[in-house]
Amino acid sequence: MPYVDRQNRICGFLDIEENENSGKFLRRYFILDTREDSFVWYMDNPQNLPSGSSRVGAIKLTYISKVSDATKLRPKAEFCFVMNAGMRKYFLQANDQQDLVEWVNVLNKAIKITVPKQSDSQPHSDNLSRQSECGKKQVSYRTDIVGGVPIITPTQKEEVSECGESIDRNNLKRSQSHLPYFAPKPPPDSAVIKAGYCVKQGAVMKNWKRRYFQLDENTIGYFKSELEKEPLRVIPLKEVHKVQECKQSDIMMRDNLFEIVTSSRTFYVQADSPEEMHSWIKAVSGAIVAQRGPGRSAPSMRQARRLSNPCIPRYTARTGECGTHVGSRANVPSY
């Protein structure tokens, strides 16, 4: 679902047909910024990309005339909608019907409140070829006219600017096939409660990496990708104290952040949207309750198991073996 980030921009994941009429949709992270009059997309959430990573594509909002449902135009593409920009039609896929409706609404609202500037009527001017994302440094850019719409992209020899460095577009195309999170597979095991991609913080380097999480009745584990059979780590639910929205999200500058607290470590996990974050919290919490029963935390479960074991005697000044009350301390056997 599209959500508003800390910079008051509308963000979220969509699949886009980058090459017109190719029928191949690629997973991208989109940012709708009405203040910058732009709709841009990246390989992933820029928070998870190396510093200086450039965008994959961008469209000025003033060039978008209409956004609408494209179910009839692309019947094989589920939850598909189309952006009309000049002579080019951009087809995108949402995650579900509600996601489609919300993206269509926010995009149409954005293009209605964006008034074209006089300079926008001359898209072939030399000024457009020199525009940069920051507008502060003179760097080399190339302007391609695709279906009557100018698409501004940095050249391969672009110097590093304050906003970042360029990426070889040939390498970018090759790397697209290696991304593991285009279309998450459905859980093959009926015991799996929830599965999907999230971003987690490392224990040592404190870097953030995208991992495939899988929750079942007894554990929550994460894999390098959905194609891997062996998990990188498995966390038994009996060791989880609580799962909640992260209170340090402002300090970490991360949206949709929640934490899985165990006795040995706190796992910080970032979902793709607020809805996904709450869905994970609800799913993990529900699995814990189903396993332990309501109101039973990990320490209380350990204590309950210890107290329920008749082979573990407990002696105090007023009790004898297995909690039997005695009249005096003299009756307590010595060891």
TrEMBL record:
PANTHER family linked: PLECKSTRIN HOMOLOGY DOMAIN-CONTAINING FAMILY A MEMBER 1, TANDEM PH DOMAIN CONTAINING PROTEIN
Segments for region (Disordered): 116-136
Locations listed in the record: Cell membrane; Cytoplasm; Nucleus
Function noted in UniProt: Binds specifically to phosphatidylinositol 3,4-diphosphate (PtdIns3,4P2), but not to other phosphoinositides. May recruit other proteins to the plasma membrane.
Membrane topology qualifier: Peripheral membrane protein
Annotated Polar residues bias: 116-132
Keywords, ordered alphabetically: Cell membrane, Cytoplasm, Lipid-binding, Membrane, Nucleus, Phosphoprotein, Repeat
Classification via SUPFAM superfamilies: PH domain-like
Organism encoding this protein: Suricata suricatta (Meerkat)
Main location class: membrane
Pfam family for this entry, one: PH
Domain PH residues, every copy: 7-112, 191-289
GO CC entries: cytoplasm; nucleus; plasma membrane
InterPro entries given in the database record: PH-like_dom_sf (IPR011993), PH_domain (IPR001849), PI-Interact_SigTrans_Reg (IPR051707)
Any one GO MF annotation of this record: lipid binding
Protein name as catalogued: Pleckstrin homology domain containing A1
